[in-house]
Each structure stands twice: as C-alpha cells, then as structure tokens.
TrEMBL record:
SMART domains cross-referenced by the UniProt entry: HTH_MARR
Source organism of this protein record: Arthrobacter zhangbolii
Signal peptide (from-to): none
Pfam families xrefs: MarR (PF01047)
One GO BP annotation of this record: response to stress
Name of the protein: MarR family winged helix-turn-helix transcriptional regulator
InterPro entries with a match to the protein in the record: ArsR-like_HTH, HTH_MarR-typ, MarR/SlyA-like, WH-like_DNA-bd_sf, WH_DNA-bd_sf
Molecular function as annotated in GO: DNA-binding transcription factor activity
Domain of life: Bacteria
Chain residue ranges for the region called Disordered: 117-140
Domain HTH marR-type as annotated: residue spans: 1-114
Biased composition (Basic and acidic residues): 130-140
Amino acid sequence: MAREVHPDMEPSAYGLMVLLHQQGPMRLTELSSAVGVGKPSLSRQVSMLQTLGLVEKHTDPIDGRAQPISLTESGSARLEGTAAARKAHFRSTWTGWETEDLLTLAKLLHKLNTSVLPPGGDPAIPLPADGREGEAGPGS
C-alpha cells in the first residue's frame, strides 16, 4: 500500500500516515509512543516522508521547541486516493457475495483485530450487536 501512496515510500511509513490522518498533528514523542518505535527510527521515517512532500512539521505556538507533524495536502490526498482504490477493489471482489457471508467476514475480521490488541486496548471501530460496521459494510 505504501508504494501506491508514493513509489519511494517505505512500507513502514504507511502506518504513520494513517495515524496522522486519523489523529491529526502529533509530536514525534507522541508518534513514537503510539507506534512503539524508537524516536531515532521514527525520525528517519518522518524525514523521508517530509522529503517526499507527504508530511510537514510546524512550530508549536505554545511550546516553540515542539514540532507537531501533520500530513500535507498532497499526503492526505494520496492516502485518501489509495484508501478509495482499496475500497473499490474490495467492493468489486465481493460482488456476488451473500450479505450473510459479508457479515460473517466482518465479524471474523473484527475478532481477529481485537485479539491482537494490547491489554485494555479498544478496537478502532467497535462492531455493533448486529455485526454491521455501518452503511458501507466490511472494508469501508
């Protein structure tokens, strides 16, 4: 997926972009804590993303030493384009599947995702009692 965002992007940087897209601007220490990667390694990934024009650092108006990192407009557009292409691919793959099969798939994927969460972690998208994840269905 990383190469779909930018051909020179490292695969591990894709998750950083997704996190920044979901959470908004974050400091390097916050990113490091969120992904469980040391600051030196993360700093290299952020620098690479900056060079590619996908993220940018800003000066924090309250703490001038802090530099929140956020997606650029280009980074956001590329990430959203990749996500849209993935959704379209999955939707076309699932054409012809019975609704019950799709609901079973969604339940099992949810179970898989929650089984790998750290203790006390919450799933990003809780599954309602009827097993439906919203109007778009699985893969949205």
